Amino acid sequence: MREIQSVLRSISEGKVENNYFLMGNQPYFINLICKKLEEKLITKNNREFDLRLLYGKETSVTEILETVKSYPMFGEKQLVIVREAQYLRKEIELLIPYLENSLNQTVLVICYVNKTLDSKSKIYKSINNNSKLIEFKRLYESDVYRWISLEAKRLNLNLDPKSTMLIYSNIGLDLEMIQKALEKLSIRSNKQYTIKVDDIEKYIGFSKEYNNFELQNSIGEKKFDKSIFIINQMFKNANKNPIKTTLSVLHNFFKKIILLHSKNFNSSPKSLGIHPYFLKDYQMAARNFSLENSIKIIHLLKDTDIKSVGITDNRVDKRKELKLMLDLILDIIGL
Fold first, then answer.
1. Domain match, 171 and 88 both
2. Which of 8, 30, 98, 295 ranks highest by number of CB atoms within 10 Å?
3. 51-55 and 78-83 strand pairing
């Protein structure tokens, strides 16, 4: 997270590299860097001439090399973005000579989405030595909280901890959707005050009572009648509540409970990746669910996730699957 902030700050300050190689499973961050470079290097007047977009499925390294060796028409530099570069496969190695002797008039951005290069390969070593190489790895819950806080700060929004949790529990790991929600909040809310869950419900439309956060807490407190009621309410609007997001939130919740049971684990909010405000909720859940039962529930959540792949968009099916999961949790803890 710090690296992406550092790169964006450097671009804003005009410290632009000749070559960028962006790889990994976070297309949001890859697109964000491309957008930042466009904003810095390209104007409305030279966009048609000095911004070149190429796609790995449709282009070849020969065409890429011809493009990067041409001169900008109006600006000081041209920006060449190669999207879907993973489709170039082994041919990408033909870029090595250019990367080792790149031209100052061109900024080349290679977007290698949902794939990574072998760190022992010749092309990786060449890119690492001659480009700004960034690998975007899988995000965790704590990373998303931090990103929400950073984006809120950028937009001059002051979110209370429950508001941050409410946004995460409804959207999950989709950073693009989180950004859109925060931008909507920025336009409609009063920035002079701390934003609370009532504001989230009013301006974004996420229910403060019937959401994944309240569901996980009701399960953690063993209030299963409340859990069933929340599921029924949530899945009245199935499109706003994907079952995979619900299962992901519950999986992370029980994973933290398992960590709290570990004798060698430092059970601080920072180690758990949560706000200190919520520590008491996790401690209560750890008292209610033993280590053995928590591990069984993690396996149950994984099984439910596998089954959910075949579930249709019909909300009754989703509710039925989650209620069955709750029944199985009750069996596990002997209720």
1. no
2. 30
3. parallel
Q: Does the pLDDT at position 254 exceed 90?
A: yes
3 state DSSP class of 204: coil
Give all strands of the β-sheet with 132-136 in edge-to-edge order.
Answer: 51-55, 78-83, 106-113, 19-24, 132-136
CB 185 within 8 A of CB 157: yes
Q: Token pair for residue 293?
A: 């039962």
Confidence of residue 21 (pLDDT cuts 50, 70, 90): very high
Q: What's the rounded Cα separation, in Å, for the pair 13 and 34?
A: 15
Is the pLDDT assigned to residue 283 strictly greater than 90?
A: yes
User: What does the alpha-carbon distance between residue 285 and residue 277 come to, in Å, rounded to a whole number?
Assistant: 15
Q: Note whether 296 and 263 are same-domain residues.
A: yes
What tokens appear for 262 in the block? Answer: 């570990």
Same domain, 224 and 324: yes
Is-above-0.85 flag for pTM?
A: no
- Count of residues in the chain: 335
Query: Which two three-digit tokens encode residue 124?
Result: 């990786």
Per-residue confidence (pLDDT) for residue 204, from 0 to 100: 86
